[in-house]
Structure prediction request, 802 residues.
Amino acid sequence: MVEHDVIIVGAGLAGLRAAVELADTVDVAVITKVYPTRSHSGAAQGGIAAVLKNADPEDSLESHMFDTVKGSDYLGDQDAIEILINEAPENIYELEHMGCPFSRFPDGKLAQRPFGGHSKPRAVFAADITGHAILHTLYEQCVKKKVRFYSEFYMISIFVRDGVMRGLMAYDLKTGRIEVFNTKAVLFATGGYGRAFKITSNAHANTGDGLSVVLKAGLEIEDMEFVQFHPTGLYKHGILLSEACRGEGAYLLNDLGERFMQRYALKMMELAPRDVVSRSIQQEIDEGRGIGKKDYVHLDLRHLGAERILERLPQVYEIARDYLGVDATKEPVPIQPTAHYSMGGIPTDIYGRVIFGVDKQVIKGFYAAGECACVSVHGANRLGTNSLLEAVVFGRRSARTIKEDLSKLKREPIPKEDIEKEKKFVDSLFDGESKENVAKIKAELQETMTKKCGVFRTESELKEALEKIRELQKRFKQVRIRDKGTVFNTDFVDVLEVSHLLDFSEVIVLGALERKESRGAHYRKDYPKRDDANWLKHTLARRVDGEIKLYYKPVVITKFQPMERKY
Amino acid sequence: MKKVFRIMRFDPERDSKPRYVEYEVDVNEEMTVLDVLHEIKANMDGSLSFRRSCRSAICGSCAMNIAGKNRLACNTQVVELKKDLITIRPLNGFRIIKDLVVDFDSFFRKLEKVIPYIINKTPPPEKERLQSPEDFKKIEQFTMCILCGSCTSSCPSLWFNSEYLGPSAFVKAYRFYADSRDEGKAERLEAVSDESTGVWRCHVVFNCFSACPKSIDTTYAINQLKKAAIKGGKK
Prediction:
């Protein structure tokens, strides 16, 4: 049994920011399934939002807040959003002071550029490797502060009893050992769940482990039906091509060479929020105006000129060249919407404490931050550049809460039978020959989610998706780990990951099926209007006697009453 | 089209030394080497182990030796290798844990030795520290390093001296050395100029530069550190 006062699970932006905050004064360790610098925060490209007024002195906190609330289609909790926006500038300056290499204006200040759904240019950026730049900066600070990392440890389960977090169990890939960690506090920073989809910008590792583990422990997950589809995924691959392309001025073109966004968002055009742009692209494709009548449209950067493309969007240029053989300075790039961001997650209060139920009971010693959490600052649709911001702001906030709470927290024992139960579960996965192919189950799930629970949804397709998921869950019971070794058994990790995908995908589909309205990223063709009278509320899902039950809790509305959303 | 992938396998619980296993895979024009590895793992041998995550050349997980050169599996297109028999081996110069997975702990420990974080002796201003676009340009390409290990693994100096810090650590050192905001130049030069493990063990064979999947001018960074170290009386 390993003991630490605080365990952070996940080493992306939220986890590392929290670790930096805690390392000086607290016994903290970070468990991560990949080496910290391999975390998927590093793939974020375009920027991180803050009202610094470097590009436009007219920008204001109020404007950033309103844009975010409107972007969320009024489902974001406004108390949390206000914190996000107000704390943004100091968090960005802090990152700069840590040495983060951000791009600059000629006067030496941090450069800022326009981004979708933001009414002012407020995206601070490092060319188009902003996530990478911040991730490495935070890792460097962790090295400086000698943070204890358990790299390539894969969390298997958590131990929560009587509303108290006690610790967790993890598989150490390198040694092959299963370790139990007993702690006073656990912070989840486990990232998103985009890998439930076939076409996705997400890393292979983004299998939403934290969400499913929480569900298994009898706790709740919130707003899972809200999955963001990024408008510009590289055709067939789904790899992200930053919104910064359009921030810098790129066009979206259909088969007729039209800038079709004029039909959908005349004012903001290509810089409308992602849900709006993704739907527009999908509609063009569905109505036969995809390029060559196929399932993609063009992202055209050519008019920006080679110099600007190579300076501001070097990674985008590389990706188009290496994966499709397209020279973005000379040809338009084929793109399609791609599952990108998870608005839903583990419900927390504005201090980062995990909460449970409509009455928001606090789970003692359990915290969550970043994409795996649902605080909820993004509501039904996240604005670009607000996710890195959330990870940093709420990573720091949750760490500060933990520091305050720690004197009141004890290291509660983990009952032996709980550990035995988990170990038995692991043994059962190794026991016997596999009668089902885990990779095939995963592929069928991803295909189903992209086809039937994607940009546009209908009751009949969602029902088909649900049926398919339940069939796959049944088949999964026949899956066994084929690799019987103990060291670096990635087959073992794959099997657990697929079990997670199957678990929370059911919740995504159930939430989508039940939500009979269209709001943000959740669009029901059979209920195309937003319905504030019935659906201005968050979905909570919990497993009761083996079945998923949905509950609802109200949205926190402070400054901005819901209005029609037009761009 | 069918191609044969000759993959170095090593199971620490069964093998005394690595062995090669050949897999015939039907590949199409769009497949990357990573896709092929996934195909083999999914349908031919579930025990094949390799690292991967982002599959867009930014996380640095899947560096391996493919057809004789260190590359990222995720952005290497199979057809562009123009070979029918493709050999895949783990990164050279690192201890093999299993199959294509090598031990990166020493790699990250070496990184820690070059003081891989900004040093400021003056308190920060209320807002950002200013930096001109020209000064940002001086460090930009070196901030793009994804710590994949391709460069360090390709360096003959490492093969003969496992304690050699290696190009990746030097790129990190130079990224801070050249940063107009950094105030730790002397300490950092000290850290990279050890006679047996420091920059002097670089003999400028350009293997690291040739191996870098992000086209970082690693050799330039090392040479700059050498020049500065000489000027600073470190040699």
